[in-house]
Amino acid sequence: MTEFRLDPRLENDSVPLVDFGLCSVRLMKDGNYPWLVMIPRKNDVTEIIDLAPIEQIVLMEEIGQVSKVLKSITACQKLNVAALGNMVPQLHVHVIARFESDAAWPGPVWGAVPARAYEAQSLEDLVEGLQIALLG
Amino acid sequence: MTEFRLDPRLENDSVPLVDFGLCSVRLMKDGNYPWLVMIPRKNDVTEIIDLAPIEQIVLMEEIGQVSKVLKSITACQKLNVAALGNMVPQLHVHVIARFESDAAWPGPVWGAVPARAYEAQSLEDLVEGLQIALLG
Fold first, then answer.
1. A63-77, pLDDT tens digit by residue?
2. Model-wide pTM > 0.95
3. Which residues pair with A89 in a beta bridge?
4. What ipTM goes with this model?
5. B105 and A86: CB-CB below 8 Å?
6. Nearest CA of chain B to the CA of A79: how many Å?
7. Minimal CB count within 10 Å: which of A36, B37, B57, B84?
8. Fold adopted by B8-135
9. Digit-coded pLDDT (tens) for A14-34
10. Can you give B87-129 as a three-state secondary structure string?
11. Which chain B residue has the Cα nearest residue A59?
12. Chain A residues with CB-CB distance to B46 below 8 A
């Protein structure tokens, strides 16, 4: 079995949270928004329809789990769920907690404002809180 | 049973193509991109996780059907699939055919450039081609 290779840009822009059955779930290093990214651990997959039908269903189930946790932890006003991949072709699904007060509202987050680094302690706290909730 | 009410902005910005079991599939009136939008015919639903689990699976299956047709008809370089809803809260999923030559590439389409009206004949042809393929 070939080892899964995470795209280096995704790896650089995010920190690992948990591995579900299909997806690795990571937190984007951008304090502007609580922003998770889910990457199915399959090489050479760029579109959702490149996954097998059963994997597409598992992906939807895992999106549901991640969405519920993110909504519950952040009390956000809206979730944004998106598979774009115009810049990083490896299939990844964004799940972003949006607030009417956030830096890009009501527009999409991509390219809106530069990423804002988390403070070390707040990043650590958020990662731990998310890991506990995602594994719960 | 309460009749489904389509959000007036979605209705105004798009034309109907076909109704699947869960979603109405529509074409956005924006000639910049072949841009479909899928609206589950359920009132008072804003997030994917507001749907019942089985409906979430049906949604994923229908997204797959629409994605395959759109990719096949347009020979696009990338699909963008997204449920955002920051402006129109009624749950709707965008499925957009993207090209490196399009008006927003590699950024997201929302808010990038003003919508460009289709010519009447090309809109008619595209609608007919999509309807045949989606119903096939």
1. 999 999 999 999 999
2. yes
3. none
4. 0.97
5. yes
6. 7
7. B57
8. HIT family, subunit A (3.30.428)
9. 999 999 999 999 999 999 999
10. CCCCCCEEEEEECCCCCCCCCCCCCCCCCCCCCHHHHHHHHHH
11. B60
12. 78
